Please model this.
Amino acid sequence: MLDIQFIRDNPQLVITKSKQKGYDAPVDELLKVDVTRRDLQTKIEVLRQKRNELAASAKGQSPTAENVKLGKTYKQDLTGSENELRSLDDKYVALLQSIPNMPLDDVPVGESEVDNKVAKKIGEPIDYDFVPKNHWEIEVADNLIDKTRAAKVT
Model:
């Protein structure tokens, strides 16, 4: 997963590299959600600070009716903002995870497997004079697995 700071600093590069991999990355939407999320986090921290200052000012004394009312207001605002942040975090994480890692600059860009380039070839492919068996055919032939009995169990 790409770092959000990198995406903030290089949105166009991330979009370009994502398109090279065949993805239409929602970078603009992610950045909008990121700004909203950071603003909401700041609001929550300010509310917590005010609530803590109010509690500290009333330490050792009985709170006034005005302080109680103010404390309830902070608590309601804080609860609502935290719930909003939780739902926004889910969307933020989903968007962040939908952005693919970037290919290196030396990786060739292509539409399909046909566009791949052979970097190195060692030896020649083996040309068998028989049809090779796959792994489960060899295991059945050597009695290492029993597919018929296993099929009855499931």
In short: The two ends are 38 Å apart (CA to CA). Helices lie at 4-9, 11-20, 27-57, 65-97, 135-141, 147-153. The chain has a mean pLDDT of 90.
